[in-house]
Design goal:
Layout: E1 2-6, H1 12-23, E2 28-33, E3 54-57, E4 73-76, H2 83-88, H3 90-110, E5 115-121, H4 144-158, E6 165-171, E7 173-175, H5 186-197, E8 199-202, E9 209-214, H6 215-225, E10 236-241, E11 247-249, H7 250-260, E12 265-268, H8 284-289, H9 299-312, H10 327-336
Parallel strand pairs: 1-2, 1-4, 2-3, 4-5, 5-6, 6-10, 7-9, 8-12
Antiparallel strand pairs: 9-11
């Protein structure tokens, strides 16, 4: 099986690559990435891409379609990957996350790919009162990032993608340890605060709901998506990827980290205005379609792995929110150095 992974040099890619190499050992793995975050390693003994058969560097907006020759499955991770970056680069987010996604899906179908797995997001539910949101409920995207995800899903659903089975995995909020760790995610941020300063400051009033999924369980869901039969969910499927037990209020996440990292104090800004992003998610469809692939890691296990990972690399940076482990800060660093333009394209002659 020949598998293309776009955006493989981000947070999810290293964990996914290792999982695929273990689960599908005879597969041919090809990575395609712009390389923005390639240097943001956290404790990797070897470069994660050594597990690939081939690594290609390039901009997803200029994807060379000949790479798709003989590809059986496309795993599309490439994206401007969170709300702060989406807000800063709104037009570019639309180009990369939506326009380039449907262009890639059409090209993959034209080249005979059998599967297209797209990393979508539960953030499209936005602010949702009145119970957990299922795939049948209306979406309420509040940010450029969320709008790009639902826009991509709609475009894929409405396009003629021939015999290709398409799975839009509406992932819960990612968490967990990776060889390219992100700390601009709620649980990862809380663990980094606990490890470096022994204090977690919750900027909201702690009441917003967030569903979580460990990055290793994201890899499991993706593997299911590129191997599922269209008889199991349909030729096009948009499905919430996570588990019902993974819905937590932000205050619960902070308390769990404090319990597992001794000496950690938690302060909550009870006077903060309500967070506009708050949603519980119903994952029953995913459980019914993929019972052997549902998330396995508990919240405690994710916290323990993050704590061990950060402690293992001697992480002590209390000012980590200004570090390369925040994706927006990495892009800003490239721009300040003249390597990257405001359109998020490498500047000719500026890469070094």
């Amino acid at each position: 099986m020949r598998i293309l992974i776009t955006g493989n040099m981000g947070y999810v890619g290293p964990v996914l690559t290792r999982f695929l190499r273990d689960w599908l050992p005879n597969s041919e793995l090809i990575g395609f990435d712009a390389g923005f975050f390639g240097h943001c390693l956290t404790g990797a003994g070897t470069l994660p891409e050594t597990l690939l058969d081939r690594q290609i560097f390039g901009d997803i907006r200029d994807f060379p379609v000949e790479v798709l020759d003989g590809v059986d499955a496309v795993i599309h991770l490439s994206a401007v990957s969170n709300d702060p970056m989406g807000n800063r680069f709104e037009a570019v987010t639309h180009e990369i996350n939506q326009v380039a996604t449907i262009r890639l899906a059409k090209a993959a179908a034209a080249h005979g790919a059998k599967h297209f797995a797209f990393a979508s997001s539960c953030s499209m539910y936005g602010y949702a009162e009145g119970g957990a949101r299922s795939e049948r409920d209306p979406t309420n995207p509040l940010t450029a990032y969320a709008r790009s995800k639902i826009g991509s899903e709609q475009a894929c659903a409405q396009s003629d993608l021939r015999d290709m089975t398409v799975t839009a995995l509406r992932f819960a909020t990612a968490c967990g340890m990776s060889d390219r760790l992100r700390l601009d995610l709620v649980l990862n941020d809380f663990v980094a605060c606990a490890v470096t300063s022994g204090e977690i400051t919750v900027l909201s009033d702690g009441t917003p709901w967030r569903p979580l999924i460990d990055v290793e369980d994201m890899a499991r869901a993706i593997t299911w998506a590129i191997t599922r039969s269209p008889d199991n969910g349909g030729k096009f499927l948009a499905v919430n990827a996570g588990r019902d037990e993974g819905n937590y209020q932000v205050s619960e996440l902070a308390a769990a980290v404090a319990r597992l990292v001794p000496g950690t104090k938690v302060s909550i800004n009870t006077d903060a205005p309500p967070d506009k992003r708050s949603y519980k998610v119903d994952f029953s469809l995913f459980k019914s379609l993929a019972p052997e692939w549902i998330p396995r890691l508990s919240l405690d296990q994710s916290i323990e792995r993050l704590t061990a990972g950060l402690t293992g690399i001697g992480f002590t940076d209390k000012d980590f929110r200004n570090s390369p482990y925040m994706r927006l800060k990495t892009l800003e660093g490239h721009m300040l150095a003249g390597r990257l333009g405001a359109d998020l394209r490498w500047v000719s002659g500026g890469r070094h």
